[in-house]
Each structure stands twice: as C-alpha cells, then as structure tokens.
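[Q] Does anyone have a clean structure-token version of this?
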Amino acid sequence: MRMTPVVLIMSVLTTSSLAAVDQEPQSAVSKIRETVMKAVEKRRLVTVILKIKRENRNKYSGTPGNITEQGFTLVDGKSGAQAQFQFEEIQDAKMKGSHVKLIVGSVAAGIAAVVILLVLRSELNKS
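[A] Here you go.
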C-alpha cells in the first residue's frame, strides 16, 4: 500500500523530466531559427557555432539565406563559399550587430566636447 504513492511519484517525475529533455532541443532550434530569420530581415551577418567540428572548424560566419524547416545556407562574405547547415547541428547562432549606435554615440560625444570647449572659451574671454 505504501509503495503505490512512491511508484506514482517516481513515474510522474520520470515522465516530466523526459518531456523537458525532449523540449529543450526544440526550443534551442527555435531560437536559432528565429535568430537566422531576423538576420535575413535585417540583412546582417550571422556567426554559428557547431556542436561538432566540420573541416576542423566549429565557427562559421556569413550571410544566411535559403532558409528551410531543417536548415539554411550561409554565404561567406570574403570567399563567397556557401555552406549548408542543419538547425540541429548548431550549438549557438549570433547575429552580428550594426555599428549605428557606436557611430551615433561618437558623434554625440564629439558635439558635446565642442559645446563644452566653446562654453569654456567664452567664460575665459569674459575674465
């Protein structure tokens, strides 16, 4: 009689942990697919890190294209070489950011420096 609750608890825990293990790769694949889709929309480069090395490399960068349910093509901007990747073989995918924020920040800092110098100069001229 006491064994029945223990068996039920163990079966529920085993079933829920197996379900979590099955869902984990799917969510990782979904995130990678979403990253690649955003990169295509924004015309950005992507860096992918493979789970298993291919041609003695596990890191590839390029412009993604030809996206299917299973994978996509990555075109290297320097060599023009194309490589086909399956979403399941990718450990991580990162979209390379643009430098717009850096450029805007630098311009703003330059303008602020000029304004400060002009204010200091006018203060010194008053003295």
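[Q] Thanks! Anything notable?
[A] The first strand starts at residue 46 and ends at 54.
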